């Protein structure tokens, strides 16, 4: 399983990093396709199918990610309207209106946030590369430290394998990646980026735990089996969704990129 996970990661990482470097619609299309697949997975977990509510969410989140290149505010409005309509179209007895609407928000808002962050002409490439590498480092560090050290579980009722040692390991690896990104992109506040990276690892782990809770509620192990060794797209980017949303909110609140703090 580990070998399959590594091979899949090696295959997927270069296109993602290249698209993030190119920005514009090259990156937006990648995010849009991922968003549509995540909507399919979300509704598949809820209903074991892909009805009108799921199809609407997939199309709307796909279009919102593309729209975010030029009209991010309109893209957010589109996601909000989609969430309301997806909830109305859902079958209450099967998947619940609240969960159908939540899925559109859970996928759509971070997807728009990622594209919006990349469109910053000064720091966009650095921020998205930082987010991707930070989340990957968190996953790798959490897995390695958790396996090597073990110890008390982080939240056993939700995830039976995640440990406190893994969380600390993820924070350390993420901070080291932050130092590397700061050096490569010539960012002045090196240690601030490292600190933000360590905190970002916590946010990513919260996103991971949330998706684990949803899967446990739905009685599934993975969101899908589309990625060999990893499960689904949601399984692969759950931490990125939460980190992108928080970073976008911090950027909006401060009026500047978090990497420029």
UniProtKB/TrEMBL annotation:
Task: List the InterPro entries.
Answer: PC_trans
Q: Which UniProt keywords apply?
A: Cell membrane, Lipid biosynthesis, Lipid metabolism, Membrane, Nucleotidyltransferase, Phospholipid biosynthesis, Phospholipid metabolism, Transferase, Transmembrane, Transmembrane helix
Q: Which reaction does it catalyse?
A: a 1,2-diacyl-sn-glycero-3-phosphate + CTP + H(+) = a CDP-1,2-diacyl-sn-glycerol + diphosphate
Presence of the UniProt keyword Membrane in the record: yes
Q: In which pathway does it act?
A: Phospholipid metabolism; CDP-diacylglycerol biosynthesis; CDP-diacylglycerol from sn-glycerol 3-phosphate: step 3/3; Lipid metabolism
GO MF annotation, one? phosphatidate cytidylyltransferase activity
Extract one GO cellular component term from the record: plasma membrane
The UniProt entry, under PROSITE patterns, shows: CDS
- According to UniProt, the name of this protein is Phosphatidate cytidylyltransferase
């Amino acid at each position: 399983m580990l070998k399959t996970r590594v091979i899949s990661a090696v295959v997927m990482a270069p296109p993602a990093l290249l698209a993030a470097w190119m920005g514009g619609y090259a990156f937006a299309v990648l995010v849009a396709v991922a968003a549509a697949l995540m909507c399919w997975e979300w509704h598949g977990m809820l209903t074991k199918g892909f009805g009108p509510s799921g199809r609407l969410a997939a199309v709307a989140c796909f279009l919102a990610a593309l729209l975010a290149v030029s009209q991010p505010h309109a893209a957010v409005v589109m996601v909000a309207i989609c969430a309301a309509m997806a909830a109305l179209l859902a079958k209450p007895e099967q998947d619940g209106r609240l969960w159908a609407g939540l899925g559109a928000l859970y996928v759509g808002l971070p997807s728009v946030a990622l594209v919006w962050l990349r469109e910053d002409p000064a720091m966009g490439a650095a921020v998205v590369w930082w987010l991707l590498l930070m989340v990957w480092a968190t996953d790798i560090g959490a897995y390695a430290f958790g396996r090597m050290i073990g110890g008390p579980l982080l939240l056993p009722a939700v995830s039976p394998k995640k440990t406190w040692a893994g969380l600390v390991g993820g924070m350390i690896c993420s901070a080291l990646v932050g130092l590397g990104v700061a050096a490569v992109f010539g960012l002045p506040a090196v240690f601030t980026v490292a600190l933000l990276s360590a905190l970002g690892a916590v946010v990513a782990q919260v996103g991971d735990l949330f998706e684990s809770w949803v899967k446990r509620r739905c009685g599934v192990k993975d969101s899908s089996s589309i990625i060999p060794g990893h499960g689904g797209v949601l399984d692969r980017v759950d931490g990125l969704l939460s980190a992108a949303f928080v970073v976008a909110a911090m950027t909006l609140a401060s009026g500047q990129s978090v990497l420029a703090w």
